[in-house]
Fold Ribosomal RNA large subunit methyltransferase J.
Amino acid sequence: MNYRHAYHAGNHADVLKHIVIARVIDHLKQKDKPFRVLDAHSGIGLYGLESVEAEKTFEWREGVGRLFLADGSSIELSSDAEAIIAPWRDAIRSVNNPGRLAFYPGSPEIADWLIRPTDKISLNELHPTDYETLAARYGETGQVRLFKLDATAFLKATLPPIERRGLVLIDPPYELTDEGDRVVRMMTEALKRFATGIYCVWYPVTGDGLDQKLRDAVAGMGLRNVLDVRLDIRAVKKNGGLAGSGMMIINPPWHLAEELRVILPELTERLSQGEGTFKLDHQNDE
Ligand SMILES: C[S@@+](CC[C@H](N)C(=O)[O-])C[C@H]1O[C@@H](n2cnc3c(N)ncnc32)[C@H](O)[C@@H]1O
Protein backbone atom coordinates (compact mmCIF):
# COMPACT_ATOMS: atom_id res chain seq x y z
CA MET A 1 0.00 0.00 0.00
CA ASN A 2 1.84 3.07 -1.25
CA TYR A 3 -1.01 5.51 -1.70
CA ARG A 4 -1.26 8.32 0.86
CA HIS A 5 -4.11 10.75 0.45
CA ALA A 6 -2.13 13.55 2.12
CA TYR A 7 -0.41 14.26 -1.22
CA HIS A 8 -3.73 14.77 -3.00
CA ALA A 9 -6.14 16.18 -0.41
CA GLY A 10 -8.20 19.10 -1.65
CA ASN A 11 -7.50 18.46 -5.34
CA HIS A 12 -10.18 18.75 -8.05
CA ALA A 13 -11.32 15.14 -7.47
CA ASP A 14 -11.76 15.74 -3.73
CA VAL A 15 -13.76 18.88 -4.45
CA LEU A 16 -16.29 16.99 -6.59
CA LYS A 17 -16.41 13.95 -4.29
CA HIS A 18 -16.83 15.96 -1.11
CA ILE A 19 -19.42 18.35 -2.51
CA VAL A 20 -21.46 15.27 -3.50
CA ILE A 21 -21.16 13.50 -0.14
CA ALA A 22 -21.92 16.71 1.78
CA ARG A 23 -25.11 17.05 -0.31
CA VAL A 24 -26.07 13.41 0.31
CA ILE A 25 -25.63 13.87 4.08
CA ASP A 26 -27.65 17.08 3.92
CA HIS A 27 -30.48 15.17 2.21
CA LEU A 28 -30.31 12.33 4.76
CA LYS A 29 -30.79 14.95 7.50
CA GLN A 30 -34.09 16.03 6.01
CA LYS A 31 -35.80 13.09 7.76
CA ASP A 32 -35.73 12.76 11.55
CA LYS A 33 -34.81 9.07 11.49
CA PRO A 34 -31.10 8.57 12.37
CA PHE A 35 -28.67 7.31 9.73
CA ARG A 36 -25.09 6.05 9.51
CA VAL A 37 -22.20 7.05 7.25
CA LEU A 38 -19.97 4.06 6.45
CA ASP A 39 -16.61 5.16 5.06
CA ALA A 40 -14.80 2.10 3.67
CA HIS A 41 -11.60 4.00 2.73
CA SER A 42 -11.35 6.82 5.27
CA GLY A 43 -7.81 8.17 4.97
CA ILE A 44 -6.78 10.28 7.98
CA GLY A 45 -9.71 12.70 8.12
CA LEU A 46 -7.93 16.05 8.26
CA TYR A 47 -5.15 17.30 5.98
CA GLY A 48 -2.72 20.17 6.40
CA LEU A 49 -2.35 22.24 3.25
CA GLU A 50 1.06 23.40 4.50
CA SER A 51 2.29 19.86 5.25
CA VAL A 52 5.39 18.39 3.60
CA GLU A 53 3.13 16.05 1.59
CA ALA A 54 0.79 18.82 0.35
CA GLU A 55 3.74 21.01 -0.54
CA LYS A 56 5.25 18.25 -2.67
CA THR A 57 2.37 18.36 -5.15
CA PHE A 58 0.37 21.55 -4.41
CA GLU A 59 -2.58 19.72 -6.01
CA TRP A 60 -4.98 21.53 -3.67
CA ARG A 61 -4.20 24.85 -5.35
CA GLU A 62 -6.03 23.66 -8.49
CA GLY A 63 -8.85 22.23 -6.38
CA VAL A 64 -10.07 23.84 -3.16
CA GLY A 65 -7.68 26.71 -3.94
CA ARG A 66 -9.94 27.72 -6.82
CA LEU A 67 -12.91 28.09 -4.49
CA PHE A 68 -11.21 29.66 -1.46
CA LEU A 69 -8.58 32.40 -1.19
CA ALA A 70 -5.54 31.97 1.04
CA ASP A 71 -7.24 34.15 3.68
CA GLY A 72 -10.08 31.62 3.88
CA SER A 73 -12.66 33.76 2.10
CA SER A 74 -14.80 32.22 -0.62
CA ILE A 75 -14.28 32.70 -4.32
CA GLU A 76 -17.98 32.53 -4.96
CA LEU A 77 -20.04 30.78 -7.59
CA SER A 78 -23.57 31.97 -8.42
CA SER A 79 -25.95 32.26 -5.48
CA ASP A 80 -27.89 29.14 -6.63
CA ALA A 81 -24.68 27.09 -6.77
CA GLU A 82 -23.47 28.52 -3.46
CA ALA A 83 -26.66 27.36 -1.73
CA ILE A 84 -25.95 23.81 -2.97
CA ILE A 85 -22.26 23.66 -1.99
CA ALA A 86 -22.87 25.39 1.37
CA PRO A 87 -22.47 22.21 3.52
CA TRP A 88 -19.05 21.55 1.93
CA ARG A 89 -17.97 25.15 2.48
CA ASP A 90 -19.15 24.97 6.11
CA ALA A 91 -17.09 21.81 6.70
CA ILE A 92 -13.98 23.58 5.37
CA ARG A 93 -14.59 26.65 7.53
CA SER A 94 -15.06 24.41 10.57
CA VAL A 95 -11.42 23.20 10.41
CA ASN A 96 -9.81 26.56 9.65
CA ASN A 97 -9.21 29.59 11.84
CA PRO A 98 -10.64 32.81 10.43
CA GLY A 99 -8.23 34.54 8.05
CA ARG A 100 -6.32 31.53 6.76
CA LEU A 101 -6.95 28.41 4.64
CA ALA A 102 -4.56 25.89 6.19
CA PHE A 103 -6.54 22.65 6.46
CA TYR A 104 -8.77 20.54 4.28
CA PRO A 105 -11.35 18.09 5.69
CA GLY A 106 -11.49 14.54 4.28
CA SER A 107 -14.63 12.42 4.11
CA PRO A 108 -14.61 11.38 7.83
CA GLU A 109 -14.28 14.99 8.95
CA ILE A 110 -17.04 16.18 6.62
CA ALA A 111 -19.36 13.44 7.93
CA ASP A 112 -18.38 14.11 11.54
CA TRP A 113 -19.10 17.82 11.11
CA LEU A 114 -22.41 17.44 9.29
CA ILE A 115 -24.16 14.62 11.16
CA ARG A 116 -26.58 15.22 14.04
CA PRO A 117 -26.06 13.86 17.59
CA THR A 118 -28.39 10.94 16.79
CA ASP A 119 -26.52 9.89 13.61
CA LYS A 120 -23.46 7.62 13.54
CA ILE A 121 -20.30 7.03 11.53
CA SER A 122 -18.23 3.89 10.93
CA LEU A 123 -14.72 4.67 9.71
CA ASN A 124 -12.40 2.13 8.11
CA GLU A 125 -8.76 2.50 7.08
CA LEU A 126 -6.33 -0.31 6.30
CA HIS A 127 -3.01 1.58 6.18
CA PRO A 128 -1.47 1.10 9.66
CA THR A 129 -0.04 4.62 10.05
CA ASP A 130 -3.07 6.35 8.56
CA TYR A 131 -5.32 4.23 10.76
CA GLU A 132 -3.44 5.45 13.86
CA THR A 133 -3.82 9.07 12.77
CA LEU A 134 -7.52 8.55 12.07
CA ALA A 135 -8.09 6.76 15.39
CA ALA A 136 -6.23 9.48 17.32
CA ARG A 137 -8.47 12.17 15.84
CA TYR A 138 -11.87 10.49 16.21
CA GLY A 139 -11.55 7.74 18.84
CA GLU A 140 -14.26 5.16 19.51
CA THR A 141 -17.23 7.07 20.90
CA GLY A 142 -20.96 6.47 21.10
CA GLN A 143 -21.13 8.11 17.71
CA VAL A 144 -17.99 6.86 15.95
CA ARG A 145 -16.84 3.27 15.35
CA LEU A 146 -13.36 2.56 13.98
CA PHE A 147 -12.18 -0.38 11.85
CA LYS A 148 -8.82 -1.40 10.42
CA LEU A 149 -9.97 -3.93 7.83
CA ASP A 150 -9.79 -4.52 4.12
CA ALA A 151 -12.74 -2.55 2.70
CA THR A 152 -14.57 -5.70 1.56
CA ALA A 153 -14.35 -7.24 5.03
CA PHE A 154 -15.44 -3.93 6.58
CA LEU A 155 -18.62 -3.82 4.51
CA LYS A 156 -19.32 -7.48 5.27
CA ALA A 157 -18.93 -6.78 8.98
CA THR A 158 -21.03 -3.62 9.11
CA LEU A 159 -23.86 -3.95 6.55
CA PRO A 160 -26.72 -3.55 6.96
CA PRO A 161 -26.37 -0.83 9.60
CA ILE A 162 -28.88 -1.08 12.44
CA GLU A 163 -30.26 2.32 11.45
CA ARG A 164 -31.20 0.86 8.01
CA ARG A 165 -30.54 4.26 6.48
CA GLY A 166 -27.26 5.64 5.36
CA LEU A 167 -24.44 6.47 3.02
CA VAL A 168 -21.70 4.01 2.03
CA LEU A 169 -18.58 5.65 0.60
CA ILE A 170 -16.29 3.48 -1.54
CA ASP A 171 -13.18 5.49 -2.36
CA PRO A 172 -10.19 3.22 -3.07
CA PRO A 173 -6.83 4.46 -4.37
CA TYR A 174 -7.00 2.21 -7.48
CA GLU A 175 -3.31 1.38 -7.13
CA LEU A 176 -3.86 -2.37 -7.68
CA THR A 177 -4.40 -3.54 -11.26
CA ASP A 178 -7.54 -5.47 -10.28
CA GLU A 179 -8.99 -2.68 -8.11
CA GLY A 180 -11.88 -2.08 -10.56
CA ASP A 181 -12.95 -5.74 -10.31
CA ARG A 182 -12.60 -5.60 -6.53
CA VAL A 183 -14.87 -2.56 -6.39
CA VAL A 184 -17.52 -4.30 -8.49
CA ARG A 185 -17.41 -7.40 -6.25
CA MET A 186 -17.52 -5.19 -3.16
CA MET A 187 -20.58 -3.33 -4.45
CA THR A 188 -22.36 -6.54 -5.44
CA GLU A 189 -21.83 -8.07 -1.99
CA ALA A 190 -22.71 -4.84 -0.20
CA LEU A 191 -25.94 -4.36 -2.14
CA LYS A 192 -27.05 -7.89 -1.22
CA ARG A 193 -26.77 -6.90 2.43
CA PHE A 194 -28.06 -3.33 2.22
CA ALA A 195 -30.03 -2.81 -0.98
CA THR A 196 -31.62 0.48 0.09
CA GLY A 197 -28.39 2.26 1.08
CA ILE A 198 -27.05 5.25 -0.80
CA TYR A 199 -23.70 4.25 -2.30
CA CYS A 200 -21.12 6.76 -3.54
CA VAL A 201 -18.40 5.06 -5.55
CA TRP A 202 -15.52 7.26 -6.66
CA TYR A 203 -13.49 6.60 -9.82
CA PRO A 204 -10.53 8.26 -11.55
CA VAL A 205 -10.39 9.25 -15.21
CA THR A 206 -6.90 8.68 -16.58
CA GLY A 207 -7.49 7.25 -20.06
CA ASP A 208 -6.95 3.61 -19.00
CA GLY A 209 -10.60 2.64 -19.57
CA LEU A 210 -11.30 1.90 -15.90
CA ASP A 211 -14.17 4.40 -15.70
CA GLN A 212 -15.98 2.81 -18.64
CA LYS A 213 -15.39 -0.67 -17.24
CA LEU A 214 -16.96 0.34 -13.93
CA ARG A 215 -19.87 2.02 -15.69
CA ASP A 216 -20.51 -1.11 -17.77
CA ALA A 217 -20.31 -3.34 -14.70
CA VAL A 218 -22.81 -1.17 -12.81
CA ALA A 219 -25.13 -1.09 -15.85
CA GLY A 220 -25.03 -4.92 -15.81
CA MET A 221 -26.13 -5.10 -12.17
CA GLY A 222 -29.74 -4.30 -13.03
CA LEU A 223 -29.97 -1.45 -10.53
CA ARG A 224 -32.98 0.81 -10.82
CA ASN A 225 -31.60 4.17 -9.80
CA VAL A 226 -28.01 5.17 -10.57
CA LEU A 227 -26.59 8.63 -11.04
CA ASP A 228 -23.20 9.00 -12.66
CA VAL A 229 -21.44 12.34 -12.34
CA ARG A 230 -18.12 13.05 -13.98
CA LEU A 231 -15.94 16.14 -14.18
CA ASP A 232 -12.86 16.23 -16.40
CA ILE A 233 -10.52 19.16 -15.96
CA ARG A 234 -8.57 18.43 -19.14
CA ALA A 235 -8.21 15.90 -21.95
CA VAL A 236 -6.52 12.61 -21.03
CA LYS A 237 -2.79 12.46 -21.75
CA LYS A 238 -0.84 9.51 -23.13
CA ASN A 239 1.24 9.14 -19.99
CA GLY A 240 -1.84 9.30 -17.78
CA GLY A 241 -2.36 11.51 -14.75
CA LEU A 242 -5.71 12.44 -13.28
CA ALA A 243 -7.61 14.14 -16.12
CA GLY A 244 -10.86 13.93 -14.21
CA SER A 245 -12.93 11.91 -11.80
CA GLY A 246 -16.45 10.79 -11.19
CA MET A 247 -18.85 9.27 -8.72
CA MET A 248 -21.46 6.64 -9.28
CA ILE A 249 -24.27 7.23 -6.85
CA ILE A 250 -26.60 4.28 -6.32
CA ASN A 251 -30.02 5.15 -4.88
CA PRO A 252 -29.27 8.90 -4.97
CA PRO A 253 -31.47 11.19 -2.88
CA TRP A 254 -34.27 12.98 -4.66
CA HIS A 255 -33.15 16.29 -6.16
CA LEU A 256 -29.45 15.41 -6.17
CA ALA A 257 -29.40 15.16 -9.97
CA GLU A 258 -31.12 18.54 -10.27
CA GLU A 259 -28.64 20.09 -7.88
CA LEU A 260 -25.67 18.68 -9.78
CA ARG A 261 -27.14 20.05 -12.99
CA VAL A 262 -26.99 23.52 -11.40
CA ILE A 263 -23.44 23.35 -10.08
CA LEU A 264 -21.58 21.28 -12.70
CA PRO A 265 -21.22 23.95 -15.42
CA GLU A 266 -19.84 26.45 -12.91
CA LEU A 267 -17.65 23.97 -11.10
CA THR A 268 -16.21 22.70 -14.39
CA GLU A 269 -15.40 26.20 -15.54
CA ARG A 270 -13.76 26.97 -12.19
CA LEU A 271 -11.67 23.77 -12.03
CA SER A 272 -10.80 23.49 -15.72
CA GLN A 273 -7.14 23.26 -16.70
CA GLY A 274 -7.77 23.86 -20.38
CA GLU A 275 -10.53 21.58 -21.58
CA GLY A 276 -12.97 21.09 -18.75
CA THR A 277 -16.08 19.03 -19.46
CA PHE A 278 -18.75 17.32 -17.38
CA LYS A 279 -21.31 14.55 -17.79
CA LEU A 280 -24.36 13.70 -15.77
CA ASP A 281 -26.22 10.51 -16.51
CA HIS A 282 -29.26 9.41 -14.50
CA GLN A 283 -30.69 5.91 -15.02
CA ASN A 284 -33.90 5.94 -13.03
CA ASP A 285 -36.58 3.25 -13.44
CA GLU A 286 -38.27 3.86 -10.08
C1 LIG B 1 -8.56 8.05 -1.72
S1 LIG B 1 -8.06 7.67 -0.12
C2 LIG B 1 -9.47 8.00 0.87
C3 LIG B 1 -9.84 9.44 0.99
C4 LIG B 1 -11.03 9.69 1.86
N1 LIG B 1 -12.15 8.83 1.53
C5 LIG B 1 -11.47 11.12 1.70
O1 LIG B 1 -12.32 11.41 0.85
O2 LIG B 1 -11.01 11.97 2.50
C6 LIG B 1 -8.06 5.93 -0.09
C7 LIG B 1 -7.68 5.30 1.24
O3 LIG B 1 -7.94 3.90 1.18
C8 LIG B 1 -6.96 3.23 1.94
N2 LIG B 1 -6.95 1.82 1.47
C9 LIG B 1 -6.23 1.30 0.47
N3 LIG B 1 -6.54 -0.01 0.29
C10 LIG B 1 -7.51 -0.30 1.20
C11 LIG B 1 -8.26 -1.46 1.49
N4 LIG B 1 -8.09 -2.60 0.83
N5 LIG B 1 -9.19 -1.38 2.47
C12 LIG B 1 -9.38 -0.22 3.16
N6 LIG B 1 -8.69 0.92 2.93
C13 LIG B 1 -7.77 0.88 1.95
C14 LIG B 1 -5.70 4.02 1.68
O4 LIG B 1 -4.74 3.80 2.69
C15 LIG B 1 -6.22 5.45 1.60
O5 LIG B 1 -6.11 6.08 2.85
